[in-house]
């Protein structure tokens, strides 16, 4: 059992799993609530479909960022390429995966809620689409910052 | 790159020329009606709401007829037909439609009437079907449901709720009326809710039997038909069939009108134009023989409109510049390249009074940054080719759509450029394919560098691009100050900030932090370092002292305001960091593309491997283009709206809405334009 915790690859894979799982869950929630709001708008006015679809997709990026980090990590820990890490390196990789996992989860949930509100703007004032789109995009900044830290950390480990 | 200068045009003309003048103005489509009278006594306005409502209703009837035609005789349209735009119609053809307007409206009414008949008949058929449905349980009955019996016998026909067997019915009667002996019960049918039965007994005992049955829950049917159920059903059936036949005939008749589509469209647009004209007419101040009109025209057209109106229609026309307190509508003038960004600007807001039109500069940055985010040569080529083909194929596309597609065409080219610089062609598809299927790996080397190998290098460049972007914004703000003669503001709010920021950047570059981040060691000669410190200090002290310059002598408050303004440095820091999304989105495109390439190649070489690879490749890259196009679009917009516009542009201007023919289906070719 203790071998499990002294194996670097285990820690690294745990990090990969967290990066994908947490950010993926967040995005699934975000895209989900935004989709419900979008469906409501489309029942009233099908011509707004394209606009609300863009809004719905905005909280989906966190999941993709998680995937991005996971893939880069996998290609460096002997699974898709690279070599198996030592314990310390594995722990470092685990830590590097945390930012996008946790920030991805929380920011996607909040971005999803902001998207719902922005879809409300599109429903009532479709000409304000540019501003409506901007509000959820502001939330995304923090996911991008987390992604950046995760990626840069993994690249320099 | 300009906001067109507007002028106010005011005129007074004879009523007999009213129609001609309004029609001509509508044709020109260069004037926004905005009537302002200093003194409106003596003028009256016409009540046109009735005629306007009539015209709108006629247009709606024609629209409705077109919808109905589309339902019964669908017109084949391609998926991209919405891009095709309104067809251009000869004026002569339009005039013919105008002459025949009554006939065409008649056609529209006929179609709407026919559709109404279809709806009524469909409802009738449904009703018949319901009746037949209700008849089903009684089908086994050889007499009408309303049948009461013969001279000596009585028949009780009805239902008992629940499923009941023959014995239970006999038992029920036996319990409540034990004296009855002459009795015959027949269960006709049973369904989920009711048991349908007929009970025959002697006439004189009928009441007793009925009471007994009622005690057990027996009820006579609410609507008893005096026809034998099977015969009645056939009758209903034939009625329904006849109605169906009539409906089909009506539908065919409607379908026969499909040739009048064009007429209906023309007449609908004609009434729409007239409604618009009457709306203006209703606003005109009029006296017994004259009327007045006023509004905005672009200054470049002003003189020509003035001459035409005064020469042709004897109108008294005058042009004047917009007054200080008046906010004129905004019309942008850009060349065919820079106008492609107008849609992005419009989503944010038109320039307010006194602001410049930033479209041209913004468009250049938009295309540059968009390409940097998507940064895949193949994706860029696909986007450009698709947009190029659409632009070529649908020359009459709506104006706004055309501008957006043009923007994406240029963005695609920029993406192609950055893809070549960074060596992305469907991600690493060339390497993967050559490795998997041909055994030895080849690839196109990046012209500049590969971001995945040197992310820090791209990060530094992204922030540099960001600084240039935001400096441009500051310089535009300075330009606006200078144009308005506010030199002091320009120096304090723009000059000092640029001085401070440049000084700080120059101090940061040779530092060890920068060296460790960018892995570039840059050493400036000593005088430059000294200069940098000097610039930063002068800038900072200047901002501290000058930001609160309007609070002239209250030095405490003035310094506090200055310190607060200096705190704005943190927002500059976050703005610069915000450009790191250029790196993040650029990496995202490349990495997701290589994920799909890798997935596709997992089944190895050979024919089967190749087939799977192609399928995964097409699906995966379509997804990737879609998701990253969206990302690049949203985040480029954000960089423009927040980081760039935040420096100098507020927006909030009102768009110019000229009085013109706002048609829905066709555009009428005008012989003369100004």
UniProtKB/TrEMBL annotation, chain A:
The chain crosses the membrane at residues 63-79, 91-112, 132-155. GO terms for molecular function: proton-transporting ATPase activity, rotational mechanism. Residues 14-72, 94-152 form the V-ATPase proteolipid subunit C-like domain. SUPFAM superfamilies: F1F0 ATP synthase subunit C (SSF81333). Keywords: Ion transport, Membrane, Transmembrane, Transmembrane helix, Transport. It is a multi-pass membrane protein. Belongs to the V-ATPase proteolipid subunit family. This is V/A-type H+-transporting ATPase subunit K.
TrEMBL record, chain B:
GO terms for cellular component: proton-transporting V-type ATPase, V0 domain; vacuolar proton-transporting V-type ATPase complex. Pfam families: V_ATPase_I (PF01496). The chain crosses the membrane at residues 365-391, 407-427, 458-482, 494-524, 530-548, 579-596, 603-623. GO terms for biological process: vacuolar acidification. It is a multi-pass membrane protein. Keywords: Coiled coil, Ion transport, Membrane, Transmembrane, Transmembrane helix, Transport. It is found in: Membrane. InterPro entries: V-ATPase_116kDa_su. One of its GO terms (molecular function) is ATPase binding. Residues 233-260 form a coiled coil. Its main location: membrane. Belongs to the V-ATPase 116 kDa subunit family. This is V/A-type H+-transporting ATPase subunit I. The lineage of its organism: Bacteria, Bacillati, Bacillota, Clostridia, Lachnospirales.
């Amino acid at each position: 059992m203790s071998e499990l915790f002294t194996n670097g690859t285990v820690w690294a894979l745990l990090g990969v799993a967290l990066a994908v799982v947490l950010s993926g869950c967040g995005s699934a929630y975000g895209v989900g609530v935004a989709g419900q709001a979008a469906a409501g708008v489309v029942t009233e006015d099908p011509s707004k479909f394209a606009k609300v679809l863009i809004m719905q997709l905005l909280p989906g990026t966190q999941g993709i960022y998680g995937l991005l980090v996971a893939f880069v990590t996998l290609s460096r820990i002997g699974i898709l390429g690279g070599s198996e890490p030592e314990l310390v390196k594995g722990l470092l990789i685990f830590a590097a995966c945390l930012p996008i996992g946790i920030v991805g989860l929380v920011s996607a949930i909040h971005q999803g809620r902001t998207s719902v509100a922005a879809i409300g703007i599109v429903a009532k004032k479709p000409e304000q689409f540019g501003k409506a789109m901007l509000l959820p995009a502001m939330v995304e900044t923090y996911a991008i910052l987390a992604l950046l830290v995760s990626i840069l950390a993994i690249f320099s480990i | 790159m300009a906001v067109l200068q507007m002028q106010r045009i005011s005129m007074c003309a004879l009523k007999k020329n009213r129609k001609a003048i309004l029609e001509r103005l509508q044709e020109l489509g260069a004037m926004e009606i905005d009537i302002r009278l200093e003194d409106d006594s003596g003028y009256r306005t016409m009540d046109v709401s009735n005629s306007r409502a009539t015209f709108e209703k006629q247009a709606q009837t024609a629209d409705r007829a077109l919808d109905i035609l589309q339902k019964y005789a669908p017109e084949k349209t391609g998926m991209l037909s919405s891009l095709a735009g309104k067809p251009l119609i000869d004026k002569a053809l339009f005039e013919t439609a105008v002459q025949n307007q009554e006939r065409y409206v008649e056609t529209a009414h006929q179609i709407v009437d026919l559709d109404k008949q279809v709806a009524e008949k469909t409802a009738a058929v449904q009703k018949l079907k319901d009746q037949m449905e209700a008849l089903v349980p009684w089908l086994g009955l050889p007499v009408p449901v309303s049948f009461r019996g013969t001279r000596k016998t009585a028949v009780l026909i009805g239902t008992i709720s629940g499923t009941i067997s023959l014995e239970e019915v006999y038992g029920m009667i036996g319990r409540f009326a034990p004296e009855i002996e002459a009795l015959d019960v027949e269960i006709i049918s049973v369904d989920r809710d009711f048991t349908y039965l007929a009970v025959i007994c002697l006439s004189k005992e009928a009441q007793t039997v009925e009471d007994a049955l009622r005690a057990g829950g027996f009820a006579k049917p609410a609507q008893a038909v005096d026809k034998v159920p099977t015969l009645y059903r056939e009758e209903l059936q034939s009625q329904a069939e006849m109605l169906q036949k009539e409906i089909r005939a009506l539908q065919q008749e409607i379908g026969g009108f499909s040739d009048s589509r064009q007429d209906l469209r023309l007449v609908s647009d004609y009434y729409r134009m007239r409604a618009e004209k009457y709306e203006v007419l209703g606003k005109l101040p009029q006296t017994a023989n004259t009327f007045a009109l006023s509004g905005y025209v672009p200054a470049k057209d002003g003189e020509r409109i003035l001459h035409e109106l005064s020469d042709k229609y004897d109108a008294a026309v005058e042009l004047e510049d917009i007054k200080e307190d008046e906010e004129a509508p905004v019309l942008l003038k850009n060349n065919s390249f820079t106008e492609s960004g107008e849609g992005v600007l419009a989503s944010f807001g038109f320039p307010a009074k006194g602001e410049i039109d930033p479209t041209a500069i913004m468009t250049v940055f938009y295309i540059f940054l968009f390409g940097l985010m998507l940064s895949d040569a193949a994706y860029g080529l696909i986007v450009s080719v698709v947009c190029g083909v659409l632009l070529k194929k649908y020359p009459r596309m709506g104006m706004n759509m055309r501008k957006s597609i043009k923007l994406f065409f240029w963005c695609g080219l920029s993406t192609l450029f950055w893809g070549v610089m960074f060596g992305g062609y469907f991600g690493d598809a060339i390497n993967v394919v050559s490795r998997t299927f041909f055994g030895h790996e080849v690839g196109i080397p990046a012209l500049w560098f590969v971001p995945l190998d040197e992310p820090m290098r791209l990060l530094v460049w992204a922030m540099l691009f960001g600084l240039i972007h935001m400096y441009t914004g500051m310089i535009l703000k300075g330009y606006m100050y200078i144009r308005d003669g506010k030199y002091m503001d320009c120096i304090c709010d723009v000059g000092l900030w640029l001085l401070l920021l440049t000084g700080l950047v120059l101090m940061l570059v040779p530092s060890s932090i920068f060296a460790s981040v960018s892995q570039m060691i840059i050493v400036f000669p000593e005088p430059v370092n000294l200069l940098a410190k000097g610039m930063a200090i002068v800038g900072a002290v200047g901002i501290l002292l000058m930001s609160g310059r309007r609070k002239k002598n209250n030095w405490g408050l003035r310094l506090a305001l200055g310190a607060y303004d200096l705190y704005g440095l943190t927002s500059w820091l976050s703005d610069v960091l915000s450009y790191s999304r250029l790196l993040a989105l650029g990496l995202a495109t490349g990495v997701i593309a290589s994920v799909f390439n890798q997935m596709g190649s997992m089944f190895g070489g050979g024919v089967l491997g190749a087939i799977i690879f192609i399928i995964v490749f097409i699906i995966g890259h379509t997804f990737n283009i879609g998701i990253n196009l969206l990302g690049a679009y949203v985040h480029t917009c954000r960089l423009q709206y927040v980081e760039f516009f935040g420096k100098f542009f507020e927006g909030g201007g009102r768009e110019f809405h000229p009085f013109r023919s706002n048609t829905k289906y066709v555009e009428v070719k005008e012989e003369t334009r100004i």
